[in-house]
């Protein structure tokens, strides 16, 4: 396989691996932040604080 990528095979493979690590890291970060935001929102709603889109007193 290395021969088919030419003389820069090492660089190409490292670049692909680094890119995959960054993408997986970003996906993990987004998933964790989503869970944190949902928990914060649930806490606020349990205390009676609602989102503007859920308020009944809007005209």
Automatic annotation (TrEMBL):
Localization annotation: Cell inner membrane
Membrane topology term: Single-pass membrane protein
GO biological process: cytochrome complex assembly; heme transport
Transmembrane feature ranges: 12-31
Keyword Ligase: no
Main subcellular location of this protein, as a coarse class: membrane
GO annotations of cellular component type: plasma membrane
Keyword annotations of the record: Cell inner membrane, Cell membrane, Cytochrome c-type biogenesis, Membrane, Transmembrane, Transmembrane helix, Transport
Record Pfam families: CcmD (PF04995)
InterPro entries: Haem_export_protD_CcmD (IPR007078)
Annotated function: Required for the export of heme to the periplasm for the biogenesis of c-type cytochromes.
Family: Belongs to the CcmD/CycX/HelD family.
Protein name: Heme exporter protein D
Organism: Undibacter mobilis
């Amino acid at each position: 396989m290395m021969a088919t990528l030419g003389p820069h095979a090492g660089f190409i493979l490292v670049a692909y691996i680094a890119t995959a690590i960054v993408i997986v890291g970003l996906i993990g970060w987004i998933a964790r932040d989503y869970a944190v935001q949902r928990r914060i929102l649930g806490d606020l709603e349990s205390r009676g604080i609602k989102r503007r889109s859920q308020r009944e007193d809007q005209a």
